[in-house]
Amino acid sequence: MNPHFSDALIRALGWALAHSLWMGALLAFLLFLVFQKIQSPHYRYHSACAALLLFFCSVGTAAWLAYEPKAVPQQLLYTNSIIHEISDEALISAAPPAEFTLGEEVRNRLEHYSGYLVGIWMLGFCIGMIRLAGAYYYLHRLQRKGWDLADTVFQSRTQELSKRLALARPVRLMASALIHTPMTLGHLKPIILLPIGLINQLSVAEVEAILAHELAHIKRQDWLINLLQAFMEALFYYHPAVWWMSEQIRKEREHCCDDIAIGLTENRLSYAKALVQVQEMALNGAQPALALAIKGKQPLLHRKKPLLDRIKRVLNQSQPKSQVMEKMIATGVLFLLLALYSIHNQTPKALAQVFDALSVTPAFWETEMPADSLPKPPKRIQHIIEEKDDKKVEIDLENGKLTRLQIDGKEVPAIEY
User: Fold this and answer.
1) For 374-397, how does the pLDDT look when each residue is reduced to its tens digit (9 = 90+)?
2) How far is CA 284 from its chain centroid?
């Protein structure tokens, strides 16, 4: 290989790795802003995929722009062999300036150590690709050692759900003793793999919910996209922004499949129970890197359990409407319940204070009270206002009988008198 060609390629890769740091951070920040405006998992998923693809294209463009195969690396001009071959005038003209600006210093340092940076990156990338190859081989091993469930009632149910989703490819249903959670394998010949004993531990509705979720992955062609995503993670393994964007893709992918499965089964409670049962079975097992499992993958950048968030979303989410309006209604109902509870608890205390105050001379009387020795006129209406301890109480008495009670401007129902 031409040494100038290899040096130019290493230099281009070094600059691409350097530019990828700020490019990824910028795209992750823009994606975060987009997520604040949209709530639909469908649009959030496609936005995250677009951001990851744009990042890949941007880094590739940076490498292409920095690649100059005809350029002679600057450090070659200062080796002893070249110094002896060129003239003094050429050496003086080629010598670097005595002082460098900060930008020039950073540029020279980066080009000087670009070989080491590219070597470290290449080592990590090769390790990542070896892991992907091992995961791919493990999935083929699962497929070979699985038991076909073609003659079961759930295979026919899988075909019925496939027709409702308009799937063009036939889907095989298999069971395996090597896994602990349901998962989907393959793209051209998709397979739904179930753990042995899962069908016996779940109800029919819960098994159908699991099948609907895995069929949703096949309908959306998530296997192929997940394979490309795994390659991107191996390529940019060093970048936290790539980890975050990839995590968002996986999270929104599961949300999209949850919505499709709920639309097929029309039973949110059974679907939530199926998620809990699958999680309990999967506690002691690991998910293959390339498999699409119903329980999802544990995120790297936060401690919250993704399955718990999904169960809350499944149980609390209504039909596709304005989520803002739903939150406002729920908040209003909550405040109303708190207000009713507060009135219920405070009313007896307020009444006790009012009737205790009636034993002494009131602070203000709009209608003068008759003497005890005088007969009470018929239908005598009395209006009493009492202010005590920052509370204002208004009472209406008709012939000595309480007919109206108001505390701080709030009417107290007659049933609580």
Assistant:
1) 455 556 777 777 776 677 778 777
2) 24
The 10s digit of each residue's pLDDT in 115-165 is 888 999 999 999 999 999 998 888 888 888 888 887 778 888 889 999 999
What's at 329, amino acid-wise?
Answer: I
The two tokens of residue 223 are 């296997």
Alpha carbons 313 and 255: distance in angstroms, whole number: 9
Using DSSP, state whether 197 is helix, strand or coil. coil
Count Cβ neighbours within 10 Å for each residue of 341-352 and write b for 16 or more, e otherwise: eeeeeebeebbe
Q: Whose CA is closest to 353, among 378, 384, 315, 398?
A: 384
Is it the case that residue 57 has pLDDT exceeding 90? yes
CA dihedral 288, 294, 297, 301 (to 10 degrees): 170
Distance from first CA to last CA of the chain, Å, rounded?
99
- Report phi then psi at 392, rounded to 5: -115, 120
Triad 127, 130, 133: Cα angle to 5°: 155
* Global pTM value: 0.65
Predicted confidence (pLDDT) per residue in 308-365, tens digit: 778 888 887 544 444 444 454 444 444 444 444 444 444 445 444 544 544 444 444 4
Please give the DSSP secondary-structure letter assigned to residue 77. Answer: G
Question: CA-to-CA distance for 193 and 36, rounded, in angstroms?
Answer: 36
d(CA 335, CA 355): 30
> Residue 411's beta-bridge partner residues?
406
DSSP states of 211-280: HHHHHHHHHTTHHHHHHHHHHHHHHTTT-HHHHHHHHHHHHHHHHHHHHHHHHHH--HHHHHHHHHHHHH
